[in-house]
Amino acid sequence: MARGWSNPLAFRPGPVTIISTLVYCTLFVALLVLHHRVPSAPPNPVPYPGLNITEAWLDLKVLTDGYHPYNSRRNDVVRNWLLQRLDEILVSNNASYSTKSGHDREFEAPVTIINDLHSNLTFTSNVTSTYFEGTNIIVYIRGSEDERDSWKTGSGSGVLVNAHYDSVSTGYGATDDGIGVITVLQLVKYFTYPGHQPRKGLVALLNNGEEDFLNGARVFARHPISSFSHTFLNLEGAGAGGKALLFRSTDTEVTKFYKGVAAPFGTVLAADIFNSGAVRSNTDYIVFDGNLGMRGLDVAFFEPRARYHTDQDDTKHTSVDSLWHMLSSSVHVLQGLTSDTSSAFDGDQQGKNKIPSGQGTNGVWFDLFGKAFLLFELHTLFAIAVTLLVVSPIILLVSIVLLAQADKLYMFSISTRASKTLGSLRVSTGGLRGFFRFPIIIILASAGVVGLALLITKLNSFIIYSSPYSVWSMMISAWLVLAWFFARVLDAVRPSAFHRSYAILWLFLINWVLLVVETVYEERLNIAAGYPILFTSTATALAALVSVLEQFGLETKDSYAEKHSQANSEEALYRGSSEHAEQDPTPAEEATESTSLLRDSKRTTFAKYPSSNRDQAASDDNESINDDSSLYPGIYKHEQLWSGRLPSWTWVLQLLLLVPMPCILLIQIGLLLTSAANQTIADGNSPLVIYLALSILTVLIMAPIGPFLHRYTYHLPMFLILVLIGTTIYNTLAFPFSGNNRLKVYFIQRVDLDSGLNSVSLMSPKKYFLNQIIETLPSASGQKIEYTNSLLRKDTVEATWTGIPPEVVPNPHPGIPPLIGSQTWIEFNIARYNKTKSATITLSGKNTRACRLRFKSPITHFQVQGSDYDPRFPVFPGEGIEEIRLWSREWDGKWVVHFEWQDLPGMDGRVVCLWNDEDGKRLIPAIEEVRRFAPDWVAVTKASDGLVEGSKAFAV
């Protein structure tokens, strides 16, 4: 058998290459498959009494039969259908229920459907104010332990589950938020099924208007039942299909109810990324948590984002498995929350007029392989991190001290002397050789990966949009090839048995510093996303301890020096005799038993002069001291002689400590980050940030293999060089979009109703892509296209041209030209009170229930007739108000708005109304033209709340 395979676990090129490659490949393949595989729905369509998967899937198809934004006729159709389905569900369960409207406070039946056509709210965010009239549907299921009127007094501690039934104007809303809505219907069916009454009351909210600034959830706060629930589960979709992710959680205590779900999926990192604003969208979670003071969970779909808010957010691009994943998780969470009768969610208010739900502890959570869910408090993570920071260096130092006392500390040692031999020479150990090697390797390999990230960002920044795993393959291949090359070169120049040990010590030191940084962030900013560092630090500390402890298997340095000091003395004796013979030649003596065996071998320096014994003893070349390695049969090539007695199998233990657990966590994070963020660059997010994030993750994932790379054979690196070349060429030259990964462009059409002129705008991060799209549109042919930096979509370019006039309002007479007929779309009159700096405007729009007032200069105060206010939602910011958004539950509704201003003698502005209702009706030919003629790699979505904005100027 070949020497490298005499021991299949020996630290030799063959075993190291094969075993470590198998470990990494197993982890990558398993985690990649698990990441994209949605757990299968059970074959039985009725997995539990009260649930029906087939029924739920059919309901989803009905719900998503067309676009249904708040400002559309189909939205009313969907609302009526939901009320009908609730009736059917309750009748099928033989549940006693009643239907109420508005703010009726008498709920006698066990189940009450609230058809809320009464609540309205005015609130302000930044310099934009909103008046919104709600059309929410609320179902109250009384708990077995609820007092009859507890929901009215706020003395109860119920549970809220929420989903929104409106879609965007350019998407069917299958996952945003159709599956959430259908899940709520099934939850109502489950908890009203005989024998399933919850212990605590359940409020099921189907809100309308989420897509237009979370209006539905905000106006829910005006209904008296909103103060009943202390905990909540929000169901949302920020992607289209896939698995439902635990996006966010308010605290550890509420997250524990997610812990037992059959297929957990989530990490606290997602919450930190979402809170950072990297994902440019939000959910009703921030209303229930931030404004109302509830404690709860945010569960949502998150990929693929290219289908989000487009016509591919439909049932064809999702699955029954996705529906079941959200539904099964929701049932488990709500079973736990409604059964919890502790006081964990009762306590002080966390803000004025907020629900007294108490305060929880910050949590850390993540799943493992979609099977286990780990959860602990952030201060526990902090305590463990601080303990590890203190204890791990102490244990290593104590072990090193004990090793030194045992006279076996070859690490950090340059030479040693035999203590029992008088006048013995110093013998080189070469133990410090290779100490600074690993940082050089890490820096050079990582610089190569970062360089590739910068190169791709410069040449083809959107390639990650459709080919994220090609980017991953390029970065991993680059790091491994470069790290292997420098490790092999440095090891060939100065072989060292401590290459692996020193590399692990450097990994420990790097992770120790990272753990210090993570601990500071945990304490000061409550950021928990750095939890993998705790595991990598623990792993490197244990592996470093193995590197120290394995030296106890060596002979003492004194024994080693004694053997080689004697050998040096014999060589010195021979050299002394030889030199004397050269000065006073004598006949050759007969060889005896005491004759030196080395008398015929004469060492010389590069200058051809014999080298002194003392110089030779201090040299770094142990083989110059003793060419016979028979006493150390385990030596690898030209490494130090004493290394032959190191255990040959401990590298396997170190590999298993360094790689599996840390890499599982980091690979899962990398896959989640890739799926969640790779297509957000169409929203204007910086591609450089995403590529640098992948670069950092690549280094963190592959660094644990660094200590072993110098033992790799050339076969794998040669293959990876081919992978690197191929993926680099592809990533720099390939077109980044396809029919399955379409570029989202943002559409809006503006009509000046005073002149009848209109303009169509498309927005995208790159002018180059807009050019390719616009040149396919017949209406834009021959026109001069105006390009500007978009004010609607941050970090995007806006292309504008004269488009096909919209037909969102029926023409009053066929003979009237559109330019004249459009002047009747908006009606308003404005009156100023004498010479005061105040005015009242009355306005309405035809075939719409959404209008706006835009002011040239900020106003200081306003009031919408009939509006309610809530102290939890501020109205008048100090910097003034530049826009008032008006939403009516009635078509062709009328608003009366009083406003005031300061400083200026008068006020100018525009009255704007919005139109969205175009699904299949060809009322907006311009967007239909984009859908019909644009390349198949293009998807069109809304740029603002309205697809068409018509406006008229006013002045007072």
TrEMBL record:
Positions of the Vacuolar membrane protease transmembrane domain: 436-715
Region of interest (Disordered), ranges: 571-597
SUPFAM superfamilies: Zn-dependent exopeptidases (SSF53187)
A UniProt-annotated Pfam family: PFF1_TM
GO molecular function, one term: metal ion binding
Transmembrane intervals: 15-34, 381-404, 435-457, 469-490, 502-521, 528-549, 651-676, 688-710, 716-737
Vacuolar membrane protease C-terminal domain residues: 743-949
Span of domain Peptidase M28: 156-328
EC code: 3.4.-.-
GO CC annotations on file: vacuolar membrane
Domain of life: Eukaryota
Subcellular location field: Vacuole membrane
Biological process terms in GO annotation: proteolysis
InterPro entries named in the record: Fxna-like_M28_dom, M28_fam, Peptidase_M28, PFF1_C, PFF1_TM
Cofactor section: Zn(2+)
UniProtKB keywords: Glycoprotein, Hydrolase, Membrane, Metal-binding, Metalloprotease, Protease, Transmembrane, Transmembrane helix, Vacuole, Zinc
Membrane topology of this protein: Multi-pass membrane protein
Main function: May be involved in vacuolar sorting and osmoregulation.
PANTHER family: METALLOPEPTIDASE M28 FAMILY MEMBER, VACUOLAR MEMBRANE PROTEASE
UniProt similarity note: Belongs to the peptidase M28 family.
Protein name, entry field: Peptide hydrolase
Organism the protein comes from: Gomphillus americanus
